[in-house]
Each structure stands twice: as C-alpha cells, then as structure tokens.
Amino acid sequence: MRKRYIGTALLAVSTLLGTTQTMADDYPERPVSLMVSYGAGGATDFQARLVSMMANNENYLGEPIVVINKPGAGGRVGWNWFASDAEADGYTLAAYNVPHFIAQSIEGGVRYDADSFEPIANWGADPAVVVVAADSEFNSIQELLAYAVENPGKVTVSGAGLYVGHHIAALQIQKAIGGKLAYIPTKGGGAAAMKAVIAGNVVAGINNLSDAYRAREAGNVKILAVADTQRSEQFLPDVPTLMEAGYEVDNASVNYRGFMVPAGTPTSVIDFLASRVPEMFSDPKVAEQMAAGGSGVQVMSREEVHAMWAARQETLNDLLANL
Amino acid sequence: MEFLQHFGGVFEPLSFMLLLGGTIGGLILGATPGLSPTMAVALLIPFTFQLPATQGLILLGAAYTATVAGGAVSAILLKIPGAPANIATSLDGHAMASTGRGTQALHVSFLASGVGGVVGVLLLIFLTPVLSRWALAFGPSHLFWMAILGVTVIGSLDSRSFVKGLLSGCLGLWLSMIGYDDIQGAQRFIFHDSLTGGVNIITALIGIFAIPQVIEMLARGRCEHKVSTVSVHRQSLLESLKLLLANGRALSIGTFVGSIIGLIPGVGGQIAGLLAYDQTRKFSNDPDSFGKGNPAGVIAAESANNAMVGPSLVPLLTLSIPGSPTAAVLLGGLLIHGIFPGSDLFDNYPDVAWTFINSMLIGQILMVIFGIWVASHAARVAHVPPPIMAAAVTILALFGSYSVQQSMGDVYIMLALGVGMYLLEKVGFSAAPLVLGLILGPIAEANFIQGSMIANAMNGPAEYFLSGTLNLLLLILVLASIGWSFFSTHLANRRARNLSNTAEVSLES
Amino acid sequence: MNPDTAESMPLSRVQHLVPAAAVLALALIVAWVSFTREPSEAFLFPRMIASVMLLLALWNFIRASLGLARVGDGLTRKGVGAITPGLCVIVLLVYVAARYLGFYSASWLAFLSIYSLYDPASHTLFAVWVKRVLITTAFLSVIYALFSLLLQVQTPRGLFI
Fold first, then answer.
1. Do A121 and A147 belong to one domain?
2. Residues 72-101, chain A: which have Cβ within 8 Å of B?
3. Other Cβ atoms closer than 10 A to A231
4. Considering chain B, what percentage of its residues have pLDDT values greater than 90?
5. Overall pTM surpassing 0.90 (yes/no)
6. What is the number of domains present in chain B?
7. Which residue of A167, B231, B249, C36 sits 20 to 30 Å from the alpha carbon of C76, by its own alpha carbon?
8. Which of A15, A23, A30 is the best residue to mutate to test the C interface, defined by the most C CB atoms within 10 Å of its own CB?
9. Helix, strand, coil % in chain C, rounded to nearest 5
10. Is residue A241 part of a domain?
C-alpha cells in the first residue's frame, strides 16, 4: 500500500522535474516565445504577429507562438538580451532585421554579431524608399538629389534610427552623389519618421516600402525611388529604382525579416524549425493577410538566409569602413 | 449625422456580444498591473484574425476604451497605476479609498471617464477634419516645449518641499536616461547588467507606487489590526453622481485638457491626466486638499484620460499616422483586413469606420455600467486583512513587472526602485514628480536632439525653437506655469508662517 | 491617523542630513559620468540634467544642514524591525528561489511566508496553517489562470514551474 503511494509521488515529482532531458524529442511541448526588438504596432511587430499566427497548426509547430516586445535603441536592447540572456533551448526565438543588427555589430558597442545567432528562415523583404510630402516641390528623385548636391547638408531626411536600413540607404545615396544629406534619426520607428515627412518637418524621408505605400494610398506622400535592384511589381510598379535613376545604390538596405535562435541551440531543434517554419510562412492564409497589409513576402530557407547574412556582412564592412 | 445610420451595426447579436466581452475583458485587463492598454489591445489582435473587419474593430475599440478606464481600479484600490495615464488618479483616489471612500472614488472615476470619453468620441465624429490639421502642427520644437510644460507641473505636485519636489523630478529625468540612448545608440549609466534595457516605465510605475505601499503595511508588524488598508462604507450611486456634478469645474477642465492633449501625436495619453490634475489644482479654491483625497483630483484625471481616447485616433483615421503606441496596434487591426486608414476611409469603408466609432461610444456607456458594478464589489477588497493584502500586492507587482517584457531584470529594477522610493518618501521626496520626470525625459530629449539636428541644417537652434506662434505660445505657458508654482508656494509659505505665528502667540499667552 | 499630525513631526537631524548628503553624492557621480563619457552628443542632455540636479542637491544639502524643511516621517527603529523579515523574504525569493524553483513556486512561497510572518493568528494551530495554505494556493491559481493560461506569459522555470 505504502509503496504505491511513494510510486505515485515519485511519478508526480518526475513529471514536474522532467523538463530538460527529453526536450529535443518532443519539442515543442509548450508555447514558444518570439522576441521582437521593436515596439508593439511597428512594422516588424505587426508582420511577426501575422506570420506566426498559424504556428498552432499541427503541420507547423503544434504550439502557439507568443510575441514579446523588447524595444529600444534601434533593436540593440532586444538583440543584446537575445544574445546574452535568452536560453538556447528552442523556446525563445527572435525576429531578425537585416541589415540592422549586422550594421550595429560592425559599428560596435553591442554584445552580438552574425555568429551569435542561427537563422531559421526569412519571411519578408521590405525595401527602403525615398518619400517626400504630397505637396513637396520635388517630383522626381533627380530633382531632389540635384538640390542636395547644390545645398550640401541642407536637405533633411528622416529615417527610423542610426544603423538601420534607412540609414544605410542614406549613406549609400550620399556616397553615390558625393554630397551630404542631413540624416535625422527619429525615436519611435518608421511611423514617427513618416509623420515628420507628412507634417513638413523634414524635406524628405527614407522609409519602409510597406508604410510608404500605405501613406501614398492615403494621399499624403509622393514616392520618388526604391532602394532595391528591381522595382516592386506588386505594390509600386511605377516607381523607379535608384539604380534606374542613375545612382549607384544596390539592395544592401533592404530590410529582411525572419526568425532566428541563439547560437548553441540543439541541432535537432534547429533542423525541426528550419523544416517547419518556411512552410508556415508560405501558408496561403499568411500570404493573404500580408498582402492585405501591403507587406512584401519573401520566404527564404535557412541556407539562403546564411548566404544573405554573409553577403550583407561583406557589403556593410566596406560601406561603414569608409565613414 | 451619417454616424447615426450605422448604429444598427453595433446592436447585431455577435457585435454586441463582442462589445460586451471587450468591455468586461478590457476592465479586467486594465485593472491588472503591468498590462498597459497597448499590450491589452496587442494581445487581442490574434482574436480579430478570425472575425470580419467590423466585428474585429468593435472588439478592439471596446477593449481600448475599457482598459484605459480599468487602470483606475488598481490605481484607486491598490495604488498601482496600471499605465502612466492613471498616475494622477492614484494620487487622490487612493487617499479617498484609505479614508473609507473607495466606492465613491470608483464611482466618480467611472462616471468622469464616461463623460470625458463620450465627449472625446463626439469630437472624433464631428471635428475630425479640423482636428487632423492641428495634430500635424506639432513638430519636434513644439513637442519639446510640451514636454517642458509637463516638467513644470512637478513644482505643484509636491506640496511638502519645493526643492525636494524638483530634485525628485531630476532623479526621474536621470533614471529615464539609463540604458542605450535611443537616437545615438550610446550606452549611458549602465551600472548593472539588468540596466542595459533602461528603466521601463510600466515596471517603474509598479515599483515606485506598489512597493512602498507593501512596506508601509509590513511596517505595522505582526499585531491585531483594526484599521485595514482600504475601507469602504456603503455609498450610494446617487451621492456619487451629486459629487460629480458638484465638481463640474474639474470635469470640464479634465475633458477639455484631455481632448486637446490627446490629439498631439507622441505626447498625449501619458501626460493628459497629470496636466488636467495640475490645472484643476491651480484653479481650485483649496489646492492644499489635493493628494489627500479630493474627489476633484480623481474626476479631472479620469475625465482627461478617457477624453483623450477619441481624439488620439484622429491622426490615425485621417492621416494614417498612429499618434500613440495603442493607435499603432489598432492600425495593425485595420491592416489585416486590408483597410488602409486615410482621408478616404470614411468614403471607402463607411460601415467599418462608423461602426468602429459607434462601438467606442456605446463602449463608454457599457464601461460606466460595469465599472459601477465593479465598484459595488470593491467592498470585498476592504475586508482583506493587511498581511494577505501585502502578500497579494507583492505577487501582483512581481508578475506585473515580469510580464511587461518577460524579463527578470525588470523585476530586479522594480524592487530596487520600490525600496529606494520608500526610503526617499520617508525623508520628504515624492513619487509623482519622479515618475513625471521618467515619462517626460525621453520625449524632451528625443525632440530636443531631433530639433537641433533639423535646426543645424536650417538657420540654427535659436530660430527653430523660439520662432513661430505655437512655439511662443507654449513658451509663455511654460513661463506662466513656473511663475504660478513660485507664486503659490510663496503664498502657501506665508499662510503657514501666519498660522504658526498665531499658534505660537496662543501658546505663549 | 490624521496625516497632518504625522507630517508635523519633524525629521531627526541625522535622518535629514544623511539622505541630503547621499543625494548630493549621487548628483556628483551622475555629473562626473555625464561630463567624462564620450560621445559627447549622446551625453548632451544628461549634462544638462546633471547640472540642474547638482545645483538642486547642493541647495537641498545647505538647507538640510541649516535644519530647514524637515519634511517626511523618517524611519523608526520599530518600523525597520517590522519591515526587515518581510523584505528579506521578497528579496531572497526574487533573486534565488525564482531561478532555482521556478517563478510560480517562488511566488507561492513568498505569499505564504509574508502572510504567515505578519498574520497575528497563532503559528501553532493546525487549522491556521491549513487556512494559510488554502488562501495562498487559491490566489496563485487565479494568477496562474490570468498570466499563464490567458496571457501565455512564459515565466522562468527551475525545478518546478
């Protein structure tokens, strides 16, 4: 009789204890967190919530993904935490923004670089675009940049922060025209930078394609150029790339977003995620919602993301070394 | 009057159920420490995936309204402001609750919220085109002056010592600079690892208000207490209604300030309550009674908080610019249904837009009804013995501060700030100015730096910050506010000196 | 319990002077850090704040040493004695138990300890302990339902949840 009690008690204790050893086999067995290093309501947060909404489906993770926001300093706060404090057990994922975190790690003062993280998959690509207010005197990118060459340092350009995609695009444009722009980083992300353009606080702005597309639909801005190697056929077929307009600006500033885990996460967990997550991103329901919000989808596998990270690292090393 | 045609949509069975659920859920989430309205609305977004656009927005609109008002419950009963908006509410609300007028404080808080909220939504309905231009008028230089105007309130928040009040404000401003600098990305004042993320405002609120409260309860030791922390006598709704009407001035100041401030993107919601509280106190015949349980304080703060809700959506609905974090989350709720807010929102999707706005109007009324029902149960909190109360507030503070960013570092910061604040309060420093500094520091700094950068590309900072009607108007308001603070402390000192003189004379004779 | 009588009791000289000195020291540290660290653009605003803070702290210290404005209730020996055990429990559980036992288990222990330490009822009665454990468990169940089930907050896990 007593033995049976002890047996039951031991069973109860072992179910409470047995969390770490058998993890890799039946992963995931509880909800998974996804850390977003920007505030709730920003483009990254919004898209992260969209692409992870199907996670509960048995074909994908079979457990829900819960978004946690750790905003601050253009993403440095969240990624610092992720690199040094997050447990590498597969239950804490993070959204990456390239080129942001790579540029920040080159600039220094942070606890991470590309080797601190393991990519899982990419869900979207959001190129930077050059915008001016709807009532601006500038109607083409050539007019704006010619004015900037004549008046060095007088053209104020708002963007979401230092060492984020928008800043990289501004640096590339400066290099291409051999002139100087007054880049104004804003606190509060792309939305605040866009407000500065619409309200006329600044001459022009560099912003996300998805936000600029929406602002143009609302009749608030003109989009002058896209900082990518090809036009956005889906959303802005009429807007030229900077390359077409005659400026040597490639796609280094395109904001790629995806999932990653901390380095040191068990290989079996990484493999599981790398096989399931891209399928989740490609779910028709996700694609439909993303398109409705004006966000470009570009699903890339773990290998493709690895290659993309390495390519960015090289470009940015060159670009930022010249500063 | 187009909005009247769309009232029917709100009363369809599913819509009304969602409205009801959103309101009740919002009140509960709003009353939970650590859950700001922004987080509450963000948590609801996944639920709206499954719903048609109109219904999804009804849920979000109702939840937004109710969480803002629900924060008053924990502010009044536990002295834990759920969000920065409720700080001013806790000043007089908790003082009322600890002198046996908890139900009344909740009553007037919800009634004032309802009045302010309805006025705010009506402004949204009728004046949106006019107001949207006003919202864009505020550039970095104006927002900087707005933040400074907020800082000047510090002088009048502390009636005990002028220097210590200002010094508390400075401490708050300094705390807000800890961590990575948002614009340059430089590390500042990171003395401990958990400070890299800076001091989160919600975490700080919980620590600064709840922990001293807990320690105060512990300080009474292990003895029989007849006095409990919060006591509630029976108070009729009618009496509370009379009280609200008797404080018409506080109600109108709150509603007015809330609606105006709510419009300004980036500043509004956080300081509307405190500015309204400060104005009401300055216009009051008896400014010394504030902070000691004057219902006018609660009325001004809560009417301002909810009056801000409607106008804060103006920039979002007309210009597609989210003026506050909550508006940004609501924008997400619109986008997943392929609805792009903008000047033509009301032409393209009249049913969605108007049903959303109407649901906020009806939501305000439902919120008042359920709020008053909650108030009638507040008596139960009063019967909780202090040891259980202390333990419960501690656990709520731990969970609240942890869940903001799911970080243990925040819990450590919360505890350290709480214990520090207890000691500081004991020697005459105060929490309210400190928190105000903490909120306004980043706004003032970011706009100052941004303004200077723009100014350098133009004609220099002096012209940028000091020219233009709006800049000058705000500057005059700042100077008037500082002048009034000096003048009123001078008056108070003289009154106190006269009083003590007469007291001494009477003692000597 | 009239708040006026509590406030009119002047703070003792030591309790008035020591915090003023401490705040002055803090202001000095903040000013020193602000004016020595680089990049200077990032420390522009902290320098402004630090200067004002130093000025105010100095003013406050001078007033304190003159014995002016002794506002606040101060700390009493009895009060500190009553606070210490409860505060120790909280600090210990947050810093140690949350990591090794798990957030909910630590909170359960913290609730029970604070409640029991300050509960005037006798510690030797069995029924009292049953009541304490029941109330603690009930409260933590509500917290679990709210934060873990409804809001899906992931709390630190140790030996238990």
1. no
2. 72-74, 76-77, 80-81, 85
3. 17
4. 12
5. no
6. 1
7. B231
8. A30
9. 75, 0, 25
10. no
